Amino acid sequence: SSSTTLIICSTRDQFLIRLLATTRPARGENTRHHHRLYGKTIELLSRSSRIRVLFCPTLQNLRACLAVIGTQRVIQENKMLYEKTEARPLMAVLDPLSLHVPTTEFSAQGLSRTFAALAETSFKAGMNLILCECQDSTPPDSSLWNMQVPLLNSTVRVSEETALFRRTVPVKRVAERWFEF
Known about the structure:
single chain, alpha/beta, 4-stranded parallel β-sheet, two-stranded antiparallel ribbon, 8 helices, globular
């Protein structure tokens, strides 16, 4: 079995609150049927030695984390593990888009910068990469992947009159330049 690096784009406390809220049975539901996370605890614990969990509550934290993951030591460990197990390690990133929304980097330029760092890190470290945006982090009728974002960061925008300022692109199209969607 291969190693997994799980990068959670929030604080630990925020993540645990959301996890508890999504796994707790709603009022009136049968409490006998607990969420599958509550079962198989021994199996989950046995796998935990191969899972590294990192919390990145800001874009700066995420990008610094990616720089560290891409270091030579991690690359060598993953290559050695890959040769022994014949399974590529996995880097899973939870809610990377949500980190961008409240910032000036919720743009094609800012997203591309993050996506490039993710792609480069996973390639250098010999890891498969999965991006996941939780459903509860957006309104039920919308998806961050379908939102329109400006081409440039707001700090780069010179004037509201420029054509580049008004031009937008779907987040999904930006992601498709870097990843299979």
